Amino acid sequence: ADLFDGIVMAEQRFHGEGYQEGLAEGSHAGMAEGRRYGALQGARISSEIGCYLGFALTWHCLLQKCTDEKNSKKIRALGSLIGMIQKFPYEDPTYDKLQEDLEKIRGKFKQVCSMLNIQSDFRMDTEKSSLTF
């Protein structure tokens, strides 16, 4: 009876072992792919926000010399953008409002660009590895 049991149950046993091996290998491959994808997306977001910050700090510095009312509104908007960027949670990938805050920063950036009469079309040109507006 034991001999026939081993033969009859072999398919089920091999199926179970194969499933466990496949699950372990798939989990490992999924984790590696997830890390690569997360690092790529994090780099893109960091590059975008870094560009916004550099833009805002530069314009803020340039407009400090002008004291009329029109420029003071621009300076306040730039200060607001800088503050939003500085509060952005770079170190917390589990932050639940990450996308929401990123959209707010993008919106503020577009508002500032409109105030400065600058086209706000941010994109990364991956072939030339440069930022264009």
UniProtKB/TrEMBL annotation:
A UniProt-annotated Pfam family = Yae1_N
Superkingdom classification of source:
Eukaryota
Q: Tell me which residues make up the Essential protein Yae1 N-terminal domain.
A: 18-56
Concerning its family, UniProt says: Belongs to the LTO1 family.
Name the record gives this protein: ORAV1 protein
Recorded source organism is Certhia brachydactyla (short-toed tree-creeper)
Q: Name the gene that codes for it.
A: Oraov1
